[in-house]
Amino acid sequence: MLNLLLPFLLCPTPTLAPALAPALAPQEPSLDDYLRGMSDTELYERRRTAESLVVEKAIPAVVYIETGKKVQWRDFFGQRQSALRRGSGSGAVIRPEGFVVTNYHVVGGADQITVHFEKTLDPHPYVAKLVAAVPQEDLALLKLEANPNRIFPTLALGTSSDLMIGERVLAIGSPLGHTHTVSMGIISGLHRNVPVSDPNQPRQTLRFEDLIQTDASINFGNSGGPLLNINGELIGINSAVNTAAENIGFSIPADRVRRVLEEQLITPGSYSAWVGFEVTEDDELVVTKVVDGSPAGEAGVRRGDRVLAVDGREVTEQGAWRLARLGLGPARAVRLALGQGGERREVSFLTWEKAKGLLWERMGATFRENAVGRRRILEIERLREGGPAAEIGLDRGDLVDAVQPESDDELARAWRVGTRSELAGLVGRLKSSTPLEVQVYRERELLEGVLVLD
């Protein structure tokens, strides 16, 4: 048998040559060889993805919010104790003037609000003021206290009307204090209705409707932060997380955020300061009314003036004007650029507290809060010539004992008001031309009169 096989073993086999051919062909370059030929810049650009570009664009406008709320209690021995309860959340800057949108449950009831940007970009903390809130929508608007010329980075408010289930999204926030954390996922559901307990009122349950559901990680501390699409547009505000399950978070859709901003947050009713003039409701911003003796009136604002800029920042439409007004607090210096008849000029004045301004406009008087014994009482401080209060003979130094509207509703009774805000709250509910009976003490004599509200 061995002899028979030997010739075949010794003879070369022609069919083996093709099998060896691939081993002799040139080798494809390895990944290391490919990368070795690239510059540092090329290597860096090769690592950039759509997600990293979104983060690079968005991070400068995402903020970490710290809150402090004063709480008091009595200890075992009956001694009163107090402390500052800390909280945190996230937010997104939506206007270059420093307006931040976040969840109401993040900042509601807070006595202190501090906002932080990414430390490598802006290491300075900013004090923030809650300028407007809609608790039932879990939305709030903050204004950062900064130099009026400071321009903050912003996030573009996109639309939520064309969202797709399965669409990639990113959530940015500060879960568990880890600031500016990024998580990625997809939209896993739309039009979700979710009951959530109110952190500020634990016994009350809020029901949020038409939310975006996502599997991007949303943990405590993410609340108020942005949900972004792959184009870097803000499509939602992260609001709630299902603690009974993993990878189920919810966001308030951008279209609802925009509607709440326009209809409830950025409105004249949200202003905390009074300037003493009104403008048209269109984008022309023409002054239609100036109250005599008001800050604006005494500074030289005139009917027919067009508002061009506030504190050096141009205002070209109604939305920009309302945001500028919303950012003005009481007793704050403001500089306006005005135009009329081809002339541009500037005026400056101090704003008034809203209650003080309303009483000056409607009653023609300003009031000082005083105490007589244990009772708080209002003293007339200043009168507007020809105003309702001056017309019936009220005078500086008169002490207001009570007021009573002559109306056909539940307001038609005697009201003892000890603060400007109480009196302004009542007057603000009364229509123009409503008679208001006023009782005052003048040198221990009780006097009565009826003025007609402007």
Describe this structure in words.
The protein is α+β, with helices and mostly antiparallel strands. It has four domains: 59-144, Thrombin, subunit H (Beta Barrel), CATH 2.40.10; 168-263, Trypsin-like serine proteases (Thrombin, subunit H, Beta Barrel), CATH 2.40.10; 268-350, PDZ domain (Pdz3 Domain, Roll), CATH 2.30.42.10; 354-452, Pdz3 Domain (Roll). It is built from twelve helices and 25 strands. The strands form six sheets. A six-stranded antiparallel β-barrel has the order 1-2-3-6-5-4.
SSE blueprint:
Elements: H1 2-10, H2 16-24, H3 31-36, H4 40-47, H5 50-58, E1 62-74, E2 80-95, E3 99-102, H6 104-107, E4 112-116, E5 126-134, E6 139-144, E7 168-173, E8 181-198, E9 201-214, E10 226-229, E11 234-241, E12 249-253, H7 254-265, E13 273-274, E14 277-279, E15 287-290, H8 295-299, E16 306-310, E17 313-314, H9 318-326, E18 333-340, E19 343-350, E20 352-353, H10 354-363, E21 365-372, E22 375-383, H11 388-391, E23 399-405, H12 420-427, E24 435-442, E25 445-452
Antiparallel strand pairs: 1-2, 1-4, 2-3, 3-6, 4-5, 5-6, 7-8, 7-10, 8-9, 9-12, 10-11, 11-12, 13-20, 14-15, 16-17, 16-18, 18-19, 21-22, 22-23, 23-24, 24-25
